[in-house]
């Protein structure tokens, strides 16, 4: 789940689910896979690129802060452990791509859960997925507004020579972001626009690379490595705050590594032979190795540059400030990335609500009637009143919640805690146990359940740390009023 989710668009380009077999009758198996869909062409390299693009996102900007809470020993160690857990459970999930008896493919995460665990857990999985998607749209609204504020503040400081304190309110920027999302959310099938994947990938690597480069430059300028073995010092924070912030840091790290929700979709682009599972395991190993090295470098260089004062977001005003034009480019890249990524995450929620409403109210003109509007110079735009009202309400709701709780690190930590255990660990472990028919109370069963339990405890601790952080911040923050 980190979180460059425009990868979903890339995956949809590999095949068309509605495939006309008559076009390829003479081609036989050369053009058609065993399920009647166009021949898959994905390799270890393409699957690895999808994973890397999916993981690397705005979560990388909080890793320096996370390491600052844990220190030089526990910080990198926690990142390595989360990387290993993600790799191991991803290999379990990859093994669930095909039914072991029938060989039938599972095209999505939910299909794999349905095939191995049944309908009840599919509903549970769907609830967690939708809740996670909803939370991420809030997190993206906060992150985008912070970056827009950072651009404004950076230019303000530069123009005033540092004399103006440049107090800026969150609210206008969140409203501006929400307004753009209201407009974009009215575009039917927005998630099929292929350019979104390219733009998102370029933007995420742009701001992540700038953050890493600035960290290296800052360490060279300081001529020393800041930080300590145990992290932020007592005195700067109380013992209780240190504990809760350490838990929250684990949630931030978990958020940066989450991508399991689209693993099956990535695997469904891979050609066979060799088996899709074998290819996916290699791709997972390669991509997580690359990502982990990049993450550890970004987190460690940021901590080495700022020490205990490492900011929650490296590219805001409390992080790097010069050269201001490069900071502006990085923050602009974040905003551009998140404008599109918001839609990618919101579209599954839109589709679920609209499909359910249409099924329950098939005779309602408000729900089902499409109005064609001619746009000069373009083709017709299809307006649906229910879509207009419902999607607008959704964006307004996420924007208002963001205005009430504009705390980047707290939200990132909570989202990491919310999604990592069920989607990255619990469901893959349970599906693997069911598929391989691992006997209850056997050594292997006990080991897998112990892993799941340990991660659950970490996730609950991370969630508690994030909630505690929100409560602490609300003591000094006044929604809709406070300027920063």
TrEMBL record:
Gene Ontology terms for molecular function: symporter activity
Membrane topology: Multi-pass membrane protein
Residue ranges of coiled coil: none
GO annotation, cellular component aspect: endomembrane system; plasma membrane
Pfam family, one: Aa_trans
Superkingdom of the organism of origin: Eukaryota
Key words, A-Z: Amino-acid transport, Auxin signaling pathway, Cell membrane, Membrane, Symport, Transmembrane, Transmembrane helix, Transport
Predominant place of localization: membrane
Keyword Membrane belongs to the record: yes
Matching InterPro entries: AA_transpt_TM
Compartment(s) where it occurs, according to its Swiss-Prot or TrEMBL record: Cell membrane; Endomembrane system
Keyword Membrane among record annotations: yes
One of the GO biological process terms: auxin-activated signaling pathway
Residue ranges constituting the Amino acid transporter transmembrane domain according to the UniProt record: 40-471
Transmembrane segments: 47-67, 73-97, 131-151, 195-217, 286-304, 324-345, 388-405, 411-429, 450-471
Role according to the record: Carrier protein involved in proton-driven auxin influx. Mediates the formation of auxin gradient from developing leaves (site of auxin biosynthesis) to tips by contributing to the loading of auxin in vascular tissues and facilitating acropetal (base to tip) auxin transport within inner tissues of the root apex, and basipetal (tip to base) auxin transport within outer tissues of the root apex. May be involved in lateral roots and nodules formation.
Family: Belongs to the amino acid/polyamine transporter 2 family. Amino acid/auxin permease (AAAP) (TC 2.A.18.2) subfamily.
UniProt name for this protein: Amino acid transporter transmembrane domain-containing protein
């Amino acid at each position: 789940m980190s979180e460059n989710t425009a990868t979903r668009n890339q995956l949809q380009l590999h095949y068309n689910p509605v495939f006309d077999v008559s076009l390829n009758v003479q081609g036989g198996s050369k053009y058609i896979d065993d399920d009647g869909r166009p021949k898959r062409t994905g390799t270890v390299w393409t699957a690895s690129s999808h994973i890397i693009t999916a993981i690397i996102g705005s979560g990388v900007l909080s890793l320096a802060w996370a390491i600052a809470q844990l220190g030089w020993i526990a910080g990198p160690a926690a990142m390595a452990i989360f990387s290993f857990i993600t790799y191991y459970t991803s290999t379990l999930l990859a093994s669930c791509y095909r039914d072991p008896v029938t060989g039938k493919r599972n095209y999505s995460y939910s299909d794999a859960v349905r095939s191995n665990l049944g309908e009840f857990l599919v509903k549970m999985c769907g609830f967690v997925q939708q809740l996670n998607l909803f939370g991420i749209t809030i997190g993206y609204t906060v992150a985008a507004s912070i970056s827009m504020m950072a651009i404004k503040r950076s230019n303000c400081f530069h123009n005033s020579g540092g004399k103006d304190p440049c107090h800026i309110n969150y609210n206008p920027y969140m409203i501006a972001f929400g307004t753009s999302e209201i407009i974009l959310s009215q575009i039917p099938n927005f998630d099929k626009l292929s350019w979104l994947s390219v733009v998102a990938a370029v933007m995420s690597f742009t701001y992540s690379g700038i953050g890493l480069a600035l960290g290296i430059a800052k360490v060279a300028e300081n001529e020393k490595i800041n930080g300590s073995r145990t992290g932020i010092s007592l005195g700067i924070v109380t013992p209780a705050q240190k504990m809760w912030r350490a838990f929250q840091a684990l949630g931030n790290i978990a958020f940066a590594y989450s991508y399991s929700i689209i693993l099956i979709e990535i695997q469904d682009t891979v050609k066979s032979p060799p088996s899709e599972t074998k290819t996916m395991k290699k791709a997972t190993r390669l991509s997580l190795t690359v990502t982990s090295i990049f993450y550890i470098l970004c987190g460690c260089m940021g901590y080495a540059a700022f020490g205990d004062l490492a900011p929650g977001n490296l590219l805001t005003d409390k992080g790097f400030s010069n050269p201001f034009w490069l900071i502006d480019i990085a923050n602009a890249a974040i905003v551009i990335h998140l404008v599109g990524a918001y839609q990618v995450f919101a579209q599954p929620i839109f589709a679920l609500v609209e499909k359910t409403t249409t099924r329950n109210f098939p005779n309602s003109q408000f729900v089902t009637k499409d109005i064609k509007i001619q746009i000069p110079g373009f083709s017709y735009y299809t307006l649906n009143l229910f879509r207009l009202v419902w999607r607008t309400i959704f964006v307004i709701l996420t924007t208002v919640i963001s205005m009430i709780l504009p705390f980047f690190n707290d939200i990132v930590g909570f989202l990491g805690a919310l999604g990592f255990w069920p989607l990255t660990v619990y469901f893959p472990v349970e599906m693997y146990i069911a598929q391989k028919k691992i006997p209850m109370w056997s050594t292997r069963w006990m080991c897998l359940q112990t892993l799941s339990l340990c991660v659950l405890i970490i996730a609950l601790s991370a969630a508690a740390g994030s909630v505690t952080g929100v409560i602490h911040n609300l003591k000094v923050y006044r929604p809709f009023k406070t300027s920063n």
